[in-house]
Amino acid sequence: MDHQAIDAGNITERYVTGRLAPEEAARFEEHYLDCPSCCARVEAAERLQRGLRRLAEEAAAGTPGGLRVSPWSRSPRMGLAAAALLAVALLPVWLQHREVRRLRSDLGSTREALARAQTETGSADRLAVVEGELQQTRRDLAAETAQREALAREMAADRQPQADLPVVPLTPFRGGPADGPVRTLELPKKPGWVAFWVEPGDTDFPAYRATLRRAEGAVVFQASRLALNDLGALLVTVHSTSLRPGRYQLDLDGLPPAAAPVPVGRFPLRIY
Known about the structure:
- The chain is α/β, with parallel strands linked by helices and about 270 residues long.
- The chain has helices spanning about 5-10, 10-15, 20-30, 35-60, 70-75, 75-120, 125-160; strands at about 165-170, 185, 195-200, 210-215, 220-225, 235-240, 245-255, 260-270.
- The protein has 3 domains: about 1-60; about 70-160, no CATH class; about 165-270, Immunoglobulins (Immunoglobulin-like).
- The strands form 2 sheets. It has a 5-stranded mixed sheet, with no helix packed on it. The protein has a 3-stranded mixed sheet with strand order 1-3-6, with helices on one face.
- Strand 7 (about 245-255) and strand 8 form a beta hairpin.
C-alpha cells in the first residue's frame, strides 16, 4: 500500500471511522505503523473525530427544556451513544466537501492550460486535447456534486433524532458465551443506526477491536483501535442496512502493544 493509493481511497479517514474492510485495514496498519507521515495523519483524523464528538456532546447537552426527552436519552450512557452517532454521521460530509474542492482546483488548472494553448500558433491538436480534458473535468465535477448532494440528503435524514434508536448492552460473563444470555435486536422499520454498548469487564488494554460476524463466520463489521470512553465502555455502531435477521456474534479483542490480540469477550446475538 503506497501513499497514492492511500490518498485516492481516503484510506486514513475510512480507517479511523472503521469503514475499511478487515483485510484492507490490516494492510494499512502494517504500512502506517512504520510511516511517520501516515501515523501523523491518523492522529490528526482521530483528533478531528474527537472534536466532532465533543461538539455533538455539547449540542446534546443543550437540548431545550421544552422538548420531550425520550427515556433512553436521560441515561448518561444513552446520551453519550447519541452524541457519538452524530459525530460519526458528520465526518463523511466533511470528506465529501474536501473532495469537491480538489476537483474545482483541477478544473481551474485545466482552464489555465486551455488559455495558454489558445495563445500558441499551430496548437490545434493540443487545444483539442485540453478541451477534452476540460469537458471530462466538468463531468467529474458534476458527478461529484450530485454524489455530495445525495450524501448530504442521506446524512441529514440520519441526523434526525431517533427516539427509538436500538441500543444493545453487552457484558461479558465469567463462564464464557455459553453461560450468558443471547442478546436480541429488532431492526428498525426505517433504516438507521443501531448501537452496541460493550463493557469489557476488568480488562484494561490501550485499544480494542470489535468484530461482528454472522453465524456462518462472514464478517459484517470490524473496527480497530477502539478506546474506552469515560464510562469504561465501548460504543460500536452499525447501520441497519448492513444487517439481516439471523444469528450473529460480536467478538471483542484487546490490542496490547507489540503483541497478538487477546480475546476479551464473545457475545452471541439474534437479530429479528
